[in-house]
Amino acid sequence: MLSCLSISDGTACDSHFLELSQLKHTQGISCALDLESDGKRFGSLDLSHSDNENAFATIPIPIVVIANGPGPTVLLTAGNHGNEYEGQVILRRLILETEPDDITGRLIILPALNYPAVIDDARVSPLDGGNLNRCFPGADDAGPTSAIAGFVTQALLPLCDAGIDFHSGGDSADYLACAFLCTCRDRTVFARSLELAEAFGAPYTFVVHGEEAPSGFDPTAQSLGVPFISNELSGGAGVDRLATRIGHKGLNNALVHLGLLPAERKQESGTTTFLDAMTGSSLVSSPITGICETAVDLGEYVQAGTVAARIYSLEEVDRPPVELKFEAEGIAVVRRLPARVVRGSHIYIVATEIGRDEVLNSVGVP
Predict the structure, then answer these.
(1) I need a surface site. Which of 36, 123, 251, 350 has the fewest CB within 10 A?
(2) Regarding beta strands 105-110 and 58-68, do their DSSP bridges make them parallel or antiparallel, or are they unpaired?
(3) Where are any strands of DSSP class E within 233-271?
(4) Whole-angstrom distance, CA of residue 238 vs CA of residue 85
(5) Per-residue pLDDT for the chain (366 aa), expressed as one digit of tens each?
(6) Is the sign of the CA dihedral 26, 30, 35, 36 positive or negative?
(7) What is the CATH number of the domain that holds 86?
C-alpha cells in the first residue's frame, strides 16, 4: 500500500486519505495524485517493472484530473495502442484548454494509457508484448500491461459514471470515422452506452458483441455498470484532420450529454448510422502472400461478388493476380493500409446498417 505519510500536496494522511491511498494502489502500480479535491492536477501512475532498461526506475503513465464540485465523473483515455494518434492529440488539447470552472463534475484523463507502447510508437507494449485492449480486467501476476488494465479496472472505473476510449487504425488499417458500441447483458447500461454513442455523433457507430470480448476495455467497464464507448477515428501514420475534428466535436457533445459541460456548449452534428457487426458483417482476407491492390474506396457500398482486391505474387511475375470478391453486400467500413499481405491478412470489413430499435432489442435479458 502507499505510505500514509503524505500525498502529492504534502498533506498528512487522515482516514479519508488512507482510504484513497488504498484505492489507488494495485499490484505493480501506485498513484499519489489527489483524485478527489477540486482543481486541475497533473501526475502519474507509477508502474513498477524491472528489466534491462528499467532495473532501478518506475515508468510514469500520465494522468490528469480536472474537478469542480458535485457531478458526474468521466474517464477519458487514449494511447491504449501506442501508434494511434488522433485520440492522443484530442485529449492533450482538452487538457490544455479545460479549466475547473469550465466543467461540473470530474474528468480523469489518461492521454497515453499504454505509456510504454506510446513511447515506443508501437501498437503493443515493448515491455511484454502486451496488447492492452486484450488484457482487461487485468491480473496481479501477468506482467506490466495487465497491471495497467488492473489499475484501471480496480481503482479508476469504480469512480466513474461513464467513459470513452479513443482509438484509430494506426498504420495497419483505415476506418470510417466511427464510434464502437459493445453489447452487454445489462440493458440499462447498454441503453446508456447507446445514448452516449448517439451524443458523440460520429458518422457511424459500429455495434459489436461485447460478450464475445471479455478481455476488452469496453466490456469490462460495462460489466462494472459504467456506460462506455470507444471509437476508431481514422488510420495512417499521421493525424487525420477531419477525423480529429470529428473526435473533438464528439467528445465535446458527449460531455454536454453527460452534464459536465453546459448545454450551450453543444455543437451541431449529424445523426449516427448504426452498423451491424454482430450478424451483418463479413471479412475479405488474403489467401496468399503478396502485394495487395485494393479496388474499393472506404465508405463505398458494395454488392456480393464485387471485386474487392487483387493479390500479386512476389516471386512469380508471370502469375495472374488472385482476385478477391466480397461475399456479402454492405458498406466498406475498414480497409487494410499496408500493401504487403500474408495469408490470412484481412483486407476489408463490410457491414450493413441496423436500426436503433434493432440494436436495443438485440441484447440484454428480460
Answers:
(1) 36
(2) antiparallel
(3) none
(4) 7
(5) 222 222 233 333 333 333 444 445 565 899 999 999 999 999 999 998 877 777 777 899 999 999 999 999 999 999 999 999 999 999 999 999 999 999 999 999 999 999 999 999 999 999 999 999 999 999 877 899 999 999 999 999 999 999 999 999 998 999 999 999 999 999 999 999 999 999 999 999 999 999 888 899 999 999 999 999 999 998 777 899 999 999 999 999 999 999 999 999 999 988 999 999 998 889 999 999 999 999 999 999 999 999 999 999 999 999 999 999 999 999 999 999 999 999 999 999 999 999 999 999 887 533
(6) positive
(7) 3.40.630.10
Q: Are 290 and 334 in contact (CB under 8 A)?
A: no
Q: 263 and 301 share a domain?
A: no
Helix (H/G/I), strand (E/B), else coil: 40: strand
Look up the domain containing 294 and give its range. 284-351
Would you give the DSSP letter of residue 152? I
How many other CB atoms sit within 10 Å of the CB of residue 220?
Answer: 23
Question: Residues 159, 191: one domain?
Answer: yes
Angle at 226 between CA 224 and CA 229, to 5 degrees: 125
CATH label of the domain that carries residue 331? 2.40.50.100
| DSSP 8-class letter at 183 | -
Give CA–CA dist 331/346, Å, rounded: 16
Residue 335: all three cell numbers together: 480497409
On whether the CB atoms of residues 261 and 198 are closer than 8 A, the answer is no
> Cell numbers at residue 165, please?
476510449
Q: Based on the fold, state whether residues 290 and 317 are members of the same structural domain.
A: yes
Q: What angle do CA 133, 138, 139 make, to 5 degrees?
A: 150
Contact 260, 103 (CB under 8 A): yes
Q: Is 140 exposed, middle or buried (0-12, 13-18, 19+ CB in 10 A)?
A: exposed
163, with CB counted inside 10 A (0-12, 13-18, 19+), is: buried
Task: Please answer whether residues 108 and 65 qualify as being in contact, where contact means their C-beta atoms are separated by less than 8 angstroms.
Answer: yes
Which residues is 231 bridged to in the sheet?
166, 179
